[in-house]
Amino acid sequence: MQRLQAFKYELMPNGEQQRQMRRFAGLCRVVFNEALNLQKTRYEQGEKKLGYAGLCKQLTAWRNGAPLPSGRTAPWMSEGPAHTQQQTLKDLERAYSNFFAKRADFPRFKKKGRHDSFRYPDPKQIKLDQTNSRIFLPKLGWLRYRNSREVLGAVKNITVSQSCGKWFVSIQTEREVEQSIPQGGAVGIDMGVARFATLSDGVFYPPLNSFKRHETALRKAQQTMSRKVKFSHNWKKAKARVQKIHARIGNARRDFLHKTSTTISQNHAIVCIEDLQVRSMSKSAAGTSDAPGRNVRAKSGLNKAILDQGWFEFRRQLDYKLAWNGGHLIAVPPQNTSRTCPCCGHVSKDNRQTQAKFECVECGFEENADVVGAINILRAGHARLACEVSGAVMSPAAGTHRSDSGVAQCRA
Questions:
Q1: Candidate list 105, 370, 388, 404, residue with the active-site label
Q2: Could you tell me where the beta strands, DSSP code E, fall in 241-360?
Q3: What does the alpha-carbon distance between residue 305 and residue 292 come to, in Å, rounded to a whole number?
Q4: How far is it, in rounded angstroms, from Cα 316 to Cα 330?
Q5: CA distance 359 to 356
Q6: Which of 367, 200, 386 is nearest to 398 (CA)?
Q7: b vs e for 67-97, b when ≥16 Cβ sit within 10 Å of the residue's Cβ?
């Protein structure tokens, strides 16, 4: 089995290399913004959108001194590697494809200091010396990096990125690995706020709540920054403190999600999880001036707690880690998973007495509500898997029955 994997390390560049990397990232940002400006102008004039090949021809002209779509010239554009700027055009083309496929919003202009990065696509131009913890990149020379683990496989491309004043290198590799044999059985997972993840076997993982832990420090740092004169030296120092807190929050959450998803994927062959629509769940309840919302403060706190969990990233990590270990991830509709009795199948909102307690009003079955939800998710996952094997598509209520509609069945 062929595996693509990225290894990310922190770079330790000198002052000149840092200036060069900021310059290269800025050049890529200019290329992206000018190409996006060109595409928007052509659309307004009724002309056809340029493809990647057409944009590359424009890039060559810009690097040779031709005027940019904004009207200025950029002879300094040739100081940066051409391949990195061509990769920026590929990113723009991918952004357009995602927009037309309704997977993302329309591409937006890039801003300095946000997601500064550039990518080297040609592995022949890259030299990796793991013994001495250094890497050679075109027009940058040898850079030292914090060698925390071994790079496995053949190098395919290199991405250099900046975050909170630090530079990182992400090395994507490709290698052949043996198909893993999954360990363990099937399990259902109920996602929540009080409990981050509850498994159908009763095991649960408490939430980390990394944002909540640093919320006070972040608020004070943001208040301090708001009192500074914008773009002044003190404002930049205050902004750096805010960025450092945000980075700490993100790193803690990412570490927690990786450890949890790795543990689950290594011990289970099939994982069933809810297909949660986080964007819809975390919408504001403020309403409008004509129709103001209700319980706005409580809903705001719930939205903040939901977004602090990182449910989508957890599902993404489970997906590829289970594939690496030979397992499968099954997403099921979340409707009525916490209202259905796993003993008799009765569906009622009265079954869930409180946020944590489940008591069936028909048969009297009692259990933790999150465990009940995980059990129902596991059953719905088994039903969906059976329907996919037989060529059918599972309805949202498969595996349960309602007191008013009878038994739900698979439909073609």
A1: 370
A2: 270-274, 328-332, 357-359
A3: 22
A4: 12
A5: 10
A6: 386
A7: ebbeeeebeebeebbebbbbbbbebbbebbe
Nearest residue to 241 via CA among 221, 260, 255: 221
Catalytic annotation, pick one of 34, 93, 116, 274: 274
Asked if 342 and 365 count as a contact pair (C-beta separation under 8 A), the reply is yes
Question: What is the identity of the amino acid at 128?
Answer: L
Query: What sign for the dihedral angle of Cα 338, 344, 346, 351?
Result: negative
Q: How far apart are CA 54 and CA 344, in angstroms?
A: 63
Which structure tokens are listed for 402? Answer: 């309602």
Read off the DSSP letter of residue 342: T
Tens of pLDDT along the chain (412 residues) come to: 899 999 999 999 999 999 999 999 999 999 999 999 999 999 999 999 999 999 999 999 999 999 999 999 998 999 999 999 999 999 999 999 999 999 999 999 999 989 999 999 999 999 999 999 999 999 999 999 999 999 999 999 999 999 988 999 999 999 999 988 888 999 999 999 999 999 999 999 999 999 999 999 999 999 999 999 999 999 999 999 999 999 999 999 999 999 999 999 999 999 999 999 988 888 888 877 677 888 888 888 999 999 999 999 999 999 999 999 999 999 999 999 988 999 998 999 889 888 888 989 888 899 999 999 999 999 999 998 888 777 654 443 333 333 343 333 343 3
Token couple for 71: 């009207």
Question: Could you say which of 79, 190, 215, 359 is catalytic?
Answer: 190
- What span, in angstroms and rounded, lies between the C-alpha atoms of 84 and 63? 13
Q: What order of strands is seen across the sheet that includes strand 127-129?
A: 117-120, 154-163, 166-176, 2-12, 141-145, 134-137, 127-129
- What residues form DSSP beta bridges with 120? 158
Sign of CA dihedral 57, 62, 66, 68: positive
274 is catalytic: yes
The length of the chain, given as a count of residues:
412
**204-205 β-sheet, strand order:** 204-205, 197-199, 186-191, 270-274, 328-332
The answer to whether 328 touches 269, Cβ cutoff 8 Å, is yes
**370 in active site:** yes
Q: If residue 159 lies in a helix (H) or strand (E), which one and from where to where? A: strand 154-163
Q: Which two tokens stand for residue 341?
A: 């009795």
